[in-house]
Amino acid sequence: xxxxxxxxxxxxxxxxxxxxxxxxxxxxxxxxxxxxxxxxxxxxxxxxxxx
Length: 51
What we know:
The chain is an alpha+beta fold. It is 24% helix and 20% strand.
């Protein structure tokens, strides 16, 4: 099995980050809530959301 990086579509990066942070801060979704500071990493020609 080979490992590979899929990445996130550039136009979806902010939407994905917003959804992750929103759910992490919603006590109805995740308890206890916690602070996230996602970063976008550029790898080759792809974007990766690092949490």
